Amino acid sequence: MDQKKRVYHINAKRVTENVILCGRRSRAFGIIKRVKGRVLSDEDYVLGIGKNEGKEVAVCSHGIGGPSIAIVVRELAELGARRFVRVGSSGALHPSVNVGDVVIATGAVRDDGSEYIAPIELPAIASPGLVDALVEMSKGVALPKGSKLHVGLVHSKYDFFSELPELTLDEQATRKGWERLRNLRVLCSEMECGVLFVSCIVLSQRMKAHIEAGALLVPVGRVEEEPYTSNADLRKKAEGAMDAAIGVALDALTK
What we know:
5-stranded mixed barrel; 10 strands; alpha/beta; globular; Rossmann fold
């Protein structure tokens, strides 16, 4: 099978080695504009290429959930991508994490269906080199007043609405599950990091290439409360933190 037949959803012939990923199409367009880039594809996913600090970087939306980001990462890897950083939203889980903070993920709890990509025994870990780069580039970055930087484990889920236990089949069991994760110091919950990390580990082996992945997450609400805060000040704080996180991701990929 030739390369063209391996890529079904992204209309491009090649991409750069460095890719910043985000869930929302609107955010992808914003980042492309930030790097003075051009849009290459705007069909199933938004894809563009620009430059940061004189070095090329691709920007791609990945939609919501594991299956969607799995498609994006696999196809971009076929087109030449080798380093991915996801920048996205999450729900604060651990009491030390608040809306508008920034979380650098070192690994993810696999509660996301990624066992269809690799056995559940395989840990979903971020690439150490990229984690180090993200931590280094975050030093001295201007975060909104009151925002904090965290580094640690996150939770990747299959069902967005499990953040609201009253909407699940067994509310009591769901609440116990969230409490167990808090006790294990899992910082926040989102929907894509587990699949991203596992996909890159598997693709590295399959393609005989070194494919890295990292992630920066901004809590925009809190698990078991509001998935998206209704507080205007907190929304503004989260927007500022997201802007800072995007800058950190771009610098980690290109400096």
